[in-house]
Amino acid sequence: MAMTAQSLMAFGELYRNGGKAVDGRQVVSAGWIEQSWVTRTHSRYSGDAYGYGWFMRDIGGRR
To answer: Is the whole-model pTM more than 0.90?
Structure first.
C-alpha cells in the first residue's frame, strides 16, 4: 500500500482512536479494530502471527 507520511499518520490515529476520525465521526467500528489484532493465521515464511491486515510479533519485549 503506497501512503504518504501524512496519510500513514492519519491511519495510525484512526486506529489509536478506536476507529474515530479527527472530527469525531466513527469511521471504522471499534470492535473491528479490536478484532483486527486477533491472530487468524501465521506467515508461511516467518511464522509471524497475522490478523486482519497486520503481521504481529514481539519486538523489544513488546507485542
So the answer is: no
